[in-house]
Specification:
Layout lengths: L1 E5 L4 H10 L5 E6 L15 E5 L5 H11 L3 E4 L10 H21 L4 E7 L22 H13 L6 E6 L1 E3 L7 H10 L6 E2 L2 E2 L1 E3 H11 L7 E5 L5 E2 H11 L10 E2 L8 E2 L4 H7 L7 H15 L16
Parallel strand pairs: 1-2, 1-4, 2-3, 4-5, 5-6, 6-11, 7-10, 8-13, 9-14
Antiparallel strand pairs: 9-12
Bound molecules: nicotinamide-adenine-dinucleotide.
Nicotinamide-adenine-dinucleotide binds next to α1, β2, α3, β5 and β7.
Length: 312
């Protein structure tokens, strides 16, 4: 298939490329390298990489018109400066509109969008069903939610995946790389008193393979194991992995002002509709990630939160 991936140099995009190029798909990556890195993309036949921003609607339209994708995967997103509302709105709202319009104009069969669980804001209970109301309250969450709302008006089938924390090669956000890097450097940590769900990259890739098929119904899907785990549980696994058995216990601090105490997605509609289930459990997923850091190290760490960046 011909697959156009915005933000293809990012964590999810680059894993998709590593997975799909050997399967024989033709892939076009469009990325401004705001958080992605060109060097993670292999120089191989079947992969074209162009630098630019999804905010440039004329360029998006021309590139998609030349490539004529069967599938558009919209993975580009802005989040790295929580105070830069204009960049978040430009990339996550205007950029999403540009991608949808170009996909419609050039006959893509499906647009697959990635959405953050922060669209649900501070849910009253977890796990959060996919039909729970959206109530985002951060620049990233608000702009991503507006982008997803625009996609509901697109004239082509759109599948929007509301994702748990996908954990796999090149993960550079959240508590796992943070604890790994700090504990390895002998630095102290603290744990925010929060609960999150984690999804192994292999489970995410298995779902993405399924979405290339003809029969997947358009719609919005939660993608998660449905299991919540505390940040302290991650700290304990990282400490155990690094064989720091006598380490000082980290303080558990209340969630920051822009944080959410518990985010766990209920994927039962996805399980029932698509027949997809996560195969890896929490501990396997975290340990697989730590083994990857042992081999490749941790690079930059980004956060979409303004407060307490070292806790996640
Ligand atoms: N990784 C997760 O667990 C997770 C969870 C929820 C939602 N998501 C969503 O999945 C998508 C991918 O996330 P990721 O973890 O790979 O993040 P990432 O930062 O690694 O990838 C995003 C990519 O988008 C690129 N980009 C940013 N602004 C752009 C612009 N204006 N034009 C073109 N490219 C631009 C970045 O350079 C980067 O390569 C995002 O839409 C994100 O909101 C990811």
């Amino acid at each position: 298939m011909r697959i156009f991936i915005t933000g293809g140099a990012g964590c999810l995009g680059s894993n998709l490329i590593e997975h799909w190029i050997p399967a024989g798909h033709e892939i076009f990556v469009f990325d401004n390298f705001a958080t992605g890195k060109r060097e993670v993309l292999p120089q191989v036949a079947g992969l074209t990489v162009v630098e630019g921003s999804v905010v440039d609607g004329v360029l998006v339209d021309r590139l998609m018109g030349d490539f004529k994708p069967d599938i558009v995967v919209h993975s580009a997103a802005s989040y790295k400066d929580p105070s830069d509302w204009l960049e978040d709105a430009a990339t996550n709202v205007t950029g999403t509109i540009n991608v949808a319009r170009a996909a419609e104009a050039h006959g893509a069969k499906r647009l697959i969008n990635f959405q953050t669980a922060l669209c649900y804001g501070r849910p009253s209970a977890v796990p959060i069903p996919v039909d729970a109301p959206t109530a985002p309250f951060t620049s990233y969450g608000i702009s991503k939610t507006a982008g997803e709302q625009f996609l509901r008006m697109a004239q082509i089938p759109v599948v929007s995946l509301r994702l748990a924390n996908v954990t796999g090669p090149r993960l550079a956000i959240g508590p796992i790389p943070t604890f790994y890097k700090r504990l390895k450097a002998g630095q102290k940590c603290f744990c925010s008193d929060t609960v999150r769900d984690f999804l192994d990259m292999e489970d995410f890739l298995a779902l993405m393979d399924q979405l290339l098929g003809e029969t997947v119904p358009a719609g919005v899907y939660n993608v998660s194991t449905g299991e919540g785990h505390s940040i302290k549980e991650i700290f304990d696994i990282v400490a155990d992995h690094l064989r720091l058995s006598n380490i000082e216990q980290p303080p558990i601090v209340p969630p920051g002002a822009d944080d959410v105490p518990a985010v766990v997605l209920d994927a039962s509609f996805t399980n029932a509709t698509l027949g997809w289930h996560a195969e890896h459990n929490f501990e396997q997923t975290i340990r697989r990630q730590l083994n990857w850091y042992d081999q490749h190290g941790v690079t930059d760490i980004y956060s979409h939160l303004a407060a307490q960046p070292t806790s996640r």
